[in-house]
Amino acid sequence: MKKVFVFLLVLFSEYVFSQSSAGAGATFQQRFIVDMPTAGLLKSNSVSLDADFFADGGLMLRLTASAFNRLNFGISYGGSKIIGDGNVNWYKFPGVNLKIRIIDETKNFPAIALGFDSQGRERYIDNLKRYEFKSPGFFLVGSKSFKFFGYSSIHGGINYSLEKDDGDAKTIGNDLTFSAEYNFAVNDNSVNAIGSGKGYLNAGIRWSLGNGFTIEFNWKDILRNKEPGNSRVVKLEYIQSF
Questions:
Q1: What is d(CA 88, CA 148) in angstroms, rounded to the nearest whole number?
Q2: Domain range for 56
């Protein structure tokens, strides 16, 4: 059971004005809090391109598409030292992701989605054969909206990482969302571990730029579960519906 971990997400929204996936009036659902998935999906006939810029000149691109309202699928790839000098350390394999909503949200029951995501985050560590932040792997998530200081929702789930990772978010004004995520990371304290048992506390802020664009600034490993800890990531997201 060391591969299994639980995460929790709470989302708060207050205002209605946005044209991307940040803020209370977002026209697109937020699919991740920081690293961990939510039950949010792209709308039917939509495509998303995400770019994560991380430490050591790293870049990861993720392309996700939706042919139906209940199904998203995509591919991702990247590496470190892409920006700067030295040899590029490419990821060993492309990442793949699939998410299916099996139950829609009702007044008294949450939306339920299950999926798989093989893409870890940040550097790929060759000698340990793992990403710095392990991939979600197989996951099951639930999402429920309710009224609390405006529009709010809560998301929770469990997952099983093939690499042998909970959270809060609150909108700030019309098109900003503050996020926090805690990952118990019970699977990162034994074989090929780089964690020290504190778990991973991540936080970020998302800003809707309109017309499908969102920019996100994330501060990861605030508790310094690994060395050196406190990495900073910039993420760009573009979503287009057809």
A1: 47
A2: 4-241
Unique residue bearing structure tokens 């209940």: 70
E strands, 81-211, in order: 89-90, 95-103, 111-117, 121-125, 130-133, 137-147, 151-160, 167-172, 176-183, 200-210
Which residue's structure tokens are 């995509």? 74
pTM of the predicted model as reported, rounded to 2 decimal places: 0.76
Determine contact, residues 52/233, Cβ cutoff 8 Å: yes
What are residue 128's phi and psi, to 5 degrees? -100, -10
Q: How far apart are CA 31 and CA 232, in angstroms?
A: 20
Read off the CATH number of the domain in which 172 is found.
2.40.160
76 within 8 A of 136, measured Cβ to Cβ:
no
Note the pLDDT tens digit of each residue in 188-239: 776 677 888 888 888 888 888 877 888 999 988 898 888 877 888 999 999 8
Number of domains forming the structure of the chain: 1
